[in-house]
Write a structure and sequence with these properties.
LRR_dom_sf, alpha/beta, disordered N terminus, LRMDA, 2 helices, about 20% helix
Length: about 120
């Protein structure tokens, strides 16, 4: 039984790993995207920004985006998220210089445990 479970889990992981963002056509109706504790690597370095492919693929449909527990320093990749209503950015590396793009539908923004001092408030 344990071997079966291990093999099944391995198969699932391998199958999932075979997917790429370009092949996820089944996710056209996606409205919630959670990307907790990612360690995206771009050019051998940990990503400190949101990869543009995510915005291009899902920006027109996602309403809730949770990017907590990453190492984000910039929000440049958010400009494509036109329907975003809730943005969760807790536990990142965002500082006082962060620029939050204008989002007409956004009603909830959380920035807990970042490097923002709120000294200008």
């Amino acid at each position: 039984m344990a071997t079966f479970v291990k093999n099944t889990a391995t198969d699932i992981i391998q199958t999932f790993a075979a997917f790429t963002l370009q092949r996820w056509k089944i996710l056209k109706e996606l409205w919630y995207l959670m990307m907790l504790r990612n360690s995206c690597r771009l050019l051998g370095q940990e990503a400190e920004s949101i990869p543009g492919i995510i915005g291009r693929k899902y920006g027109k449909v996602v309403k809730i985006l949770d990017l907590s527990y990453n190492k984000l320093r910039t929000l440049n990749g958010l400009y494509s998220f036109e329907k975003l209503e809730e943005l969760i950015l807790d536990n990142n590396q965002l500082g006082d210089d962060v620029e939050i793009p204008e989002m007409a539908h956004l009603h909830t923004l959380t920035l807990n445990k970042n490097r923002i001092s709120f000294r200008y408030v």
